[in-house]
Amino acid sequence: GGAAYENLRPGYSITVEPIDGESPEKIIAELQSYLHAVFENESNRGKADLIDKQYTNIRFYEKDGKKYPSVTSILNWDKEWRVTDDELRQYASRGNIVEALITNYLQKAEWFEPTEIPSLREDVSILMSGSLMMTWEQCSHKKFMEQYRKKIGISCFQEQLFNEENLYAGTLDILGTYDGIRSIMDIKCGGWDIRQLAAYAICEKDVKQLVILPVGPTDNKCGYKRPV
C-alpha cells in the first residue's frame, strides 16, 4: 500500500556557473534553499498519491505543483459508504441546483428555472430520472431568502482557499457579511459539519462569523429553517 511513498527517493543534479564576485557560500545557500523547496514538493506529491490510492473518495485541489486534499472529502471520507453511488449523485445534483439558484438570485434578484441554466442540464437530468424522486422544489430556498436576504452582503462566490501550513483546500460558497458581520456562509440542503467552515475561516483571517444557510426540505410551518 504505502510502498510508492516509502520508496520515494528523488534525485537531482545542478550545474552552476558563478557570476564574477559571487561567493561560493552564497551560491550554496541559495541552492540549498531551492532544493529544500523542490524536495518538499516531491514529498507532498508522494503523500497525496498515497492518500489517493488508499482512499479513493478523497478529492484534491492543485496549486503551484502541490496537491491539497479537499476539506469536505477529509470530513466525509468514512460516510459515503452508507449510500449508493447513484443516491450520492442525486443528493449532490439537488445541492448543485439549489446552490446555483440561490447564487443567481443573490446576484440578479430573480428566480430562474434550473432548466434555463445550461450548466445545470446534467444535474436536472440526474434528479428527474433518479430513484429517490427528489426535486429542487422540495427545498426551502425561496422561503428562506424571503426572510433573510436583507441580512446577506456579498463579497464573492465560490472562492477557492488553500491552507499552505496544513495543506488542505476547499471552496467556500459565499464570503461577505451576515447581519453586518464579516462571515463565511455555506448553503446546505442536507446535514453539515461546522468544522468545514472553521477550516475555511483559518484561511480568511478577517472572518468573524460562520453561518450555515439551511435551505433543504423542512416540516416547519413557516416553510423555512433559521440560519445557524
Compile the SSE list and pairings.
Elements (H helix, E strand, L loop, with lengths): L2 H4 L17 H31 L5 E4 L2 E4 L1 H6 L8 H24 L12 H8 L12 H8 L3 E12 L4 E11 L2 E8 L5 H10 L5 E6 L14
Parallel strand pairs: 5-6
Antiparallel strand pairs: 1-2, 3-4, 4-5
Helix pairs in contact: 4-5
Protein name: PD-(D/E)XK endonuclease-like domain-containing protein
Indicate the mean pLDDT.
Answer: 80
Q: Give the SSE order as H and E letters.
A: HHEEHHHHEEEHE
Distance between the termini: 41 Å
Largest pleated sheet: 4 strands, mixed
User: Low-confidence parts, pLDDT < 50 over ≥5 residues?
Assistant: 1-9, 50-56
Mind telling me the C-alpha Rg? 23 Å
Q: Taking strands numbered 1, 2, ... along the chain, how are they ordered across the largest sheet?
A: 3-4-5-6
User: Helix tally?
Assistant: 7
Structural class by SSE content: alpha+beta
> Would you count the extended β strands for me?
6
Strand content: 15-25%
Shape: elongated
Q: Total domains, how many? A: 2
Which percent bin holds the helix content? Answer: 25-40%
Can you tell me about this structure?
The protein is α+β, with helices and mostly antiparallel strands and 228 residues long. It folds into 2 domains: 3-80, no CATH class; 81-214, no CATH class. Helix content is 40%, strand content 20%. The chain contains 7 helices and 6 strands; from the N terminus they run ααββααααβββαβ. The protein has helices spanning 3-6, 24-54, 71-76, 85-108, 121-128, 141-148, 194-203; strands at residues 60-63, 66-69, 152-163, 168-178, 181-188, 209-214. The chain has a 4-stranded mixed sheet with strand order 3-4-5-6, with helices on both faces. A two-stranded antiparallel sheet has the order 1-2. A hairpin with a 2-residue loop joins strand 1 (60-63) and strand 2 (66-69).
